[in-house]
Design brief:
This protein is an alpha+beta fold. It has a single domain (about 45-220), classed as Cyclophilin-like (Cyclophilin, Beta Barrel). The protein is about 20% helix and about 20% strand. It is built from 6 helices and 9 strands; from the N terminus they run αββαβββαββαβααβ. The protein has helices at about 15-20, 65-75, 105-110, 150-155, 170-175, 190-205; strands at about 45-50, 55-60, 85, 90, 95, 130, 145, 160-170, 210-220. It has a 9-stranded antiparallel β-sheet.
């Protein structure tokens, strides 16, 4: 529950190339710089969730689930998980999140599923962090759950591949509000279809006791700072009359 392209446009000033002047030297155009390459995603990294129950730190292991780890990194650095509710919390099973409070963002990322990773390299034990999926292949998008119990026997064989584990703050995960239980048709908790269209406004009105991820941040190693490009200086136009 898809990648950014960088487009560089180089302008050509034909007039400047064709013009003849009596000046001894022509003004030089700045040489265009190549677009920076995206930094590689670390083999291991940590993400901090600032939640309404306290901080939770997740250690991500790319070798467990490469596609999942890369997708999670992208979503976190894009700010997707900020202000996400733990909309599905079932005692002794899982807590789930990953539907953005803005329905437009949810729709955008739901349209970009990722391919399945190989069978689980690490079992679905307590504290592991896993992308949810449907029964169809290649159906992981943004939904993530944290295992509250050892669910390996049931989930490993179904293709749920952990990509990380909670290394700090598991007590805060266990304190997340779970009074609403599962959603329809299994329970009376938040309806995912209604959440898809109504966002956090729907949750805050109908399920006011839910807990939230206030902010998600890659903390170790920190992501590289965005490159700020200075605009190229404009070429001066010659005022010398043509011959």
């Amino acid at each position: 529950m898809k990648a950014n392209q960088v487009l560089m446009v180089v302008g050509v000033c034909a007039l400047a190339l064709a013009a003849q002047t009596t000046t001894s030297k022509a003004t030089k155009r700045p040489t265009p710089k190549a677009a920076p390459k995206a930094a590689p995603i670390p083999a291991e990294y940590k993400v901090k969730f600032e939640t309404t129950k306290g901080d939770v730190v997740i250690q991500v292991h790319r070798d467990w689930s490469p596609m999942g780890a890369d997708h999670f990194y992208q979503l976190v650095t894009k700010g997707y998980y900020d202000n996400n509710a733990f909309f599905r919390a079932i005692k002794g099973f899982v807590v789930q999140f990953g539907m953005n409070g803005d329905p437009k963002l949810t729709a955008k990322w739901n349209a970009v599923p990722i391919k399945d990773d190989p069978p689980a390299q690490h079992p679905n034990k307590v504290g592991t962090v896993v992308f949810a999926k449907t029964g169809a292949p290649d159906s992981r998008t943004t939904h993530i759950f944290i295992n509250l119990n050892d669910n390996a026997e049931a989930l490993d064989q179904m293709g749920f591949t952990p990509f990380g584990e909670v290394v700090s703050g598991m007590e805060n995960v266990n304190n997340i509000f779970m009074g609403y239980g599962d959603g329809p048709p299994s329970g009376s908790g938040p309806d995912q279809e209604a959440l898809t269209h109504g966002g956090n406004a729907y949750l805050q009105k109908a399920f006011p006791n839910l807990d939230y991820i206030k902010k998600a941040t890659v903390i170790d190693p920190p992501p590289p700072a965005p490159v700020v490009h200075q605009p190229a200086s404009k070429m001066k136009q010659s005022t010398t009359p043509r011959q």
